[in-house]
Protein backbone atom coordinates (compact mmCIF):
# COMPACT_ATOMS: atom_id res chain seq x y z
CA UNK A 1 0.00 0.00 0.00
CA UNK A 2 1.45 3.32 -1.11
CA UNK A 3 1.66 6.40 1.09
CA UNK A 4 -0.76 8.23 -1.16
CA UNK A 5 -3.48 5.54 -0.81
CA UNK A 6 -3.02 5.48 2.95
CA UNK A 7 -3.50 9.24 3.16
CA UNK A 8 -6.64 8.98 1.03
CA UNK A 9 -8.13 6.31 3.36
CA UNK A 10 -7.30 8.33 6.49
CA UNK A 11 -8.90 11.42 5.00
CA UNK A 12 -12.14 9.46 4.62
CA UNK A 13 -12.39 8.91 8.43
CA UNK A 14 -14.32 11.80 9.98
CA UNK A 15 -12.38 13.60 12.72
CA UNK A 16 -15.60 14.92 14.30
CA UNK A 17 -18.19 12.17 15.04
CA UNK A 18 -21.78 12.64 14.02
CA UNK A 19 -24.57 13.03 16.59
CA UNK A 20 -25.25 9.31 17.14
CA UNK A 21 -21.56 8.46 17.42
CA UNK A 22 -20.92 11.31 19.83
CA UNK A 23 -23.82 10.25 22.06
CA UNK A 24 -22.62 6.63 22.05
CA UNK A 25 -19.08 7.68 22.94
CA UNK A 26 -20.35 9.92 25.74
CA UNK A 27 -22.51 7.13 27.17
CA UNK A 28 -19.57 4.73 27.12
CA UNK A 29 -17.36 7.26 28.86
CA UNK A 30 -19.90 8.12 31.56
CA UNK A 31 -20.53 4.42 32.23
CA UNK A 32 -17.00 4.05 33.63
CA UNK A 33 -16.72 3.25 37.35
CA UNK A 34 -14.97 6.48 38.26
CA UNK A 35 -17.89 8.53 36.94
CA UNK A 36 -20.48 6.41 38.73
CA UNK A 37 -18.56 6.71 41.99
CA UNK A 38 -18.54 10.48 41.65
CA UNK A 39 -22.30 10.70 41.29
CA UNK A 40 -24.04 12.26 44.34
CA UNK A 41 -25.69 9.80 46.69
CA UNK A 42 -29.17 10.17 48.11
CA UNK A 43 -27.67 11.59 51.31
CA UNK A 44 -25.72 14.15 49.25
CA UNK A 45 -28.93 15.22 47.54
CA UNK A 46 -30.76 15.54 50.87
CA UNK A 47 -27.91 17.59 52.33
CA UNK A 48 -27.92 19.87 49.31
CA UNK A 49 -31.69 20.30 49.57
CA UNK A 50 -31.41 21.22 53.27
CA UNK A 51 -28.67 23.75 52.56
CA UNK A 52 -30.71 25.32 49.77
CA UNK A 53 -33.76 25.46 52.04
CA UNK A 54 -31.82 27.19 54.81
CA UNK A 55 -30.23 29.59 52.36
CA UNK A 56 -33.63 30.56 50.99
CA UNK A 57 -35.14 30.71 54.47
CA UNK A 58 -32.71 33.36 55.64
CA UNK A 59 -32.97 35.65 52.65
CA UNK A 60 -34.39 39.08 53.62
CA UNK A 61 -37.52 38.56 51.56
CA UNK A 62 -38.40 35.24 53.21
CA UNK A 63 -37.65 36.61 56.67
CA UNK A 64 -40.18 39.38 56.12
CA UNK A 65 -42.75 36.96 54.71
CA UNK A 66 -42.40 34.49 57.60
CA UNK A 67 -42.55 37.09 60.36
CA UNK A 68 -43.12 35.52 63.81
CA UNK A 69 -43.29 32.04 62.26
CA UNK A 70 -39.61 32.23 61.38
CA UNK A 71 -38.51 31.33 64.91
CA UNK A 72 -40.79 28.28 64.95
CA UNK A 73 -39.55 27.06 61.59
CA UNK A 74 -35.92 27.58 62.56
CA UNK A 75 -36.46 25.72 65.84
CA UNK A 76 -37.97 22.76 64.01
CA UNK A 77 -35.13 22.69 61.49
CA UNK A 78 -32.47 22.86 64.22
CA UNK A 79 -34.20 20.07 66.17
CA UNK A 80 -34.24 17.88 63.06
CA UNK A 81 -30.55 18.57 62.44
CA UNK A 82 -29.72 17.76 66.06
CA UNK A 83 -31.64 14.49 65.85
CA UNK A 84 -29.80 13.56 62.66
CA UNK A 85 -26.44 14.27 64.33
CA UNK A 86 -27.35 12.09 67.30
CA UNK A 87 -28.43 9.23 65.05
CA UNK A 88 -25.38 9.45 62.80
CA UNK A 89 -22.71 10.00 65.45
CA UNK A 90 -24.23 7.91 68.23
CA UNK A 91 -23.50 4.62 66.46
CA UNK A 92 -19.74 5.10 66.04
CA UNK A 93 -19.58 5.91 69.73
CA UNK A 94 -21.14 2.53 70.55
CA UNK A 95 -18.73 0.86 68.15
CA UNK A 96 -15.78 2.47 69.92
CA UNK A 97 -17.18 1.35 73.27
CA UNK A 98 -17.48 -2.22 72.02
CA UNK A 99 -13.93 -2.09 70.65
CA UNK A 100 -12.57 -0.81 73.98
CA UNK A 101 -14.53 -3.52 75.81
CA UNK A 102 -12.11 -6.16 74.47
CA UNK A 103 -9.54 -4.90 76.99
CA UNK A 104 -10.59 -6.05 80.43
CA UNK A 105 -8.56 -5.53 83.60
CA UNK A 106 -5.33 -4.94 81.74
CA UNK A 107 -5.64 -7.83 79.30
CA UNK A 108 -7.30 -8.46 75.95
CA UNK A 109 -10.30 -10.66 76.69
CA UNK A 110 -13.37 -10.92 74.44
CA UNK A 111 -15.07 -13.69 76.40
CA UNK A 112 -18.62 -13.18 77.63
CA UNK A 113 -19.56 -13.27 81.30
CA UNK A 114 -21.08 -16.72 80.81
CA UNK A 115 -17.89 -18.03 79.22
CA UNK A 116 -15.76 -16.57 82.00
CA UNK A 117 -17.97 -18.22 84.61
CA UNK A 118 -17.54 -21.59 82.90
CA UNK A 119 -13.75 -21.16 82.84
CA UNK A 120 -13.75 -20.07 86.49
CA UNK A 121 -15.75 -23.14 87.50
CA UNK A 122 -13.33 -25.37 85.59
CA UNK A 123 -10.35 -23.78 87.35
CA UNK A 124 -12.10 -24.22 90.71
CA UNK A 125 -12.66 -27.93 90.03
CA UNK A 126 -8.94 -28.22 89.35
CA UNK A 127 -8.29 -26.31 92.61
CA UNK A 128 -6.55 -23.54 90.71
CA UNK A 129 -7.98 -21.01 93.13
CA UNK A 130 -5.95 -18.04 91.92
CA UNK A 131 -7.05 -18.60 88.32
CA UNK A 132 -10.65 -19.20 89.40
CA UNK A 133 -10.77 -15.95 91.40
CA UNK A 134 -9.29 -13.92 88.54
CA UNK A 135 -11.74 -15.39 86.04
CA UNK A 136 -14.74 -14.93 88.31
CA UNK A 137 -13.94 -11.29 88.96
CA UNK A 138 -13.53 -10.78 85.24
CA UNK A 139 -17.00 -12.33 84.90
CA UNK A 140 -18.37 -9.74 87.34
CA UNK A 141 -16.89 -6.89 85.32
CA UNK A 142 -17.98 -8.33 81.97
CA UNK A 143 -21.54 -8.98 83.18
CA UNK A 144 -21.91 -5.38 84.36
CA UNK A 145 -20.57 -4.14 81.02
CA UNK A 146 -22.97 -6.36 79.11
CA UNK A 147 -25.82 -4.81 81.10
CA UNK A 148 -24.50 -1.30 80.30
CA UNK A 149 -24.15 -0.58 84.02
CA UNK A 150 -20.46 0.31 83.87
CA UNK A 151 -18.16 1.52 81.11
CA UNK A 152 -14.60 1.21 82.45
CA UNK A 153 -11.65 2.56 80.52
CA UNK A 154 -9.24 -0.01 79.03
CA UNK A 155 -6.76 0.59 81.86
CA UNK A 156 -9.32 0.44 84.68
CA UNK A 157 -8.19 -1.46 87.77
CA UNK A 158 -10.23 -3.93 89.79
CA UNK A 159 -10.85 -1.28 92.45
CA UNK A 160 -11.97 1.23 89.81
CA UNK A 161 -14.50 -1.27 88.49
CA UNK A 162 -15.69 -2.02 92.04
CA UNK A 163 -16.27 1.68 92.73
CA UNK A 164 -18.06 2.16 89.43
CA UNK A 165 -20.25 -0.89 90.06
CA UNK A 166 -21.19 0.38 93.51
CA UNK A 167 -23.22 3.18 91.90
CA UNK A 168 -25.98 0.90 90.55
CA UNK A 169 -25.49 -1.54 93.47
CA UNK A 170 -24.67 0.53 96.57
CA UNK A 171 -25.68 -2.28 98.92
CA UNK A 172 -22.93 -4.43 97.35
CA UNK A 173 -20.18 -1.81 97.65
CA UNK A 174 -18.38 -3.65 100.46
CA UNK A 175 -18.63 -7.03 98.71
CA UNK A 176 -17.38 -5.53 95.45
CA UNK A 177 -14.41 -3.99 97.25
CA UNK A 178 -13.60 -7.34 98.87
CA UNK A 179 -13.82 -9.11 95.50
CA UNK A 180 -11.48 -6.53 93.96
CA UNK A 181 -9.00 -7.01 96.81
CA UNK A 182 -9.12 -10.78 96.24
CA UNK A 183 -8.43 -10.23 92.51
CA UNK A 184 -5.45 -7.97 93.24
CA UNK A 185 -4.06 -10.35 95.86
CA UNK A 186 -3.92 -13.38 93.58
CA UNK A 187 -3.22 -11.51 90.36
CA UNK A 188 -0.50 -9.09 91.42
CA UNK A 189 0.69 -10.12 94.89
CA UNK A 190 1.03 -13.81 94.07
CA UNK A 191 -1.27 -15.10 96.81
CA UNK A 192 -2.57 -18.63 96.08
CA UNK A 193 -6.17 -17.98 97.08
CA UNK A 194 -8.43 -20.68 98.46
CA UNK A 195 -11.89 -22.16 98.09
CA UNK A 196 -13.48 -19.77 100.59
CA UNK A 197 -12.12 -16.71 98.82
CA UNK A 198 -13.32 -18.01 95.46
CA UNK A 199 -16.75 -18.73 96.93
CA UNK A 200 -16.94 -15.15 98.25
CA UNK A 201 -16.24 -13.70 94.77
CA UNK A 202 -18.63 -16.15 93.11
CA UNK A 203 -21.41 -15.32 95.59
CA UNK A 204 -20.98 -11.62 94.82
CA UNK A 205 -21.25 -12.35 91.11
CA UNK A 206 -24.42 -14.38 91.59
CA UNK A 207 -26.08 -11.74 93.76
CA UNK A 208 -25.31 -9.01 91.23
CA UNK A 209 -26.67 -11.16 88.42
CA UNK A 210 -30.01 -11.54 90.19
CA UNK A 211 -30.36 -7.96 91.43
CA UNK A 212 -32.12 -5.10 89.71
CA UNK A 213 -29.88 -2.01 89.66
CA UNK A 214 -31.09 1.02 91.57
CA UNK A 215 -31.96 4.19 89.70
CA UNK A 216 -30.17 5.96 92.52
CA UNK A 217 -28.67 4.91 95.87
CA UNK A 218 -31.76 6.06 97.79
CA UNK A 219 -33.97 3.65 95.85
CA UNK A 220 -31.60 0.76 96.56
CA UNK A 221 -31.58 1.53 100.30
CA UNK A 222 -35.35 1.78 100.46
CA UNK A 223 -35.71 -1.62 98.77
CA UNK A 224 -33.19 -3.32 101.07
CA UNK A 225 -34.59 -5.40 103.95
CA UNK A 226 -34.34 -3.85 107.40
UniProtKB/TrEMBL annotation:
Chain segments annotated as transmembrane:
66-89
The record places domain Protein-glutamine gamma-glutamyltransferase-like C-terminal at: 136-204
Residue span of region Disordered: 203-226
Organism (species): Microbacterium capsulatum
Q: List the InterPro entries.
A: TgpA-like_C
Name the residue ranges with Basic and acidic residues bias. 203-213
Query: Per UniProt, which keywords does this protein have?
Result: Membrane, Transmembrane, Transmembrane helix
Write the protein's name.
Answer: DUF4129 domain-containing protein
Amino acid sequence: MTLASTLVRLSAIPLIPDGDSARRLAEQELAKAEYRAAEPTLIDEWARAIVDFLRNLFTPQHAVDLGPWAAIVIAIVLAAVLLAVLVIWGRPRRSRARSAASVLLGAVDDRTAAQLRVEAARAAREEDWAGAIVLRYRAIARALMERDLIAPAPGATAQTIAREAAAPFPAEAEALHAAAVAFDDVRYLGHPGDADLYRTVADTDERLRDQRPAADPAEQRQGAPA
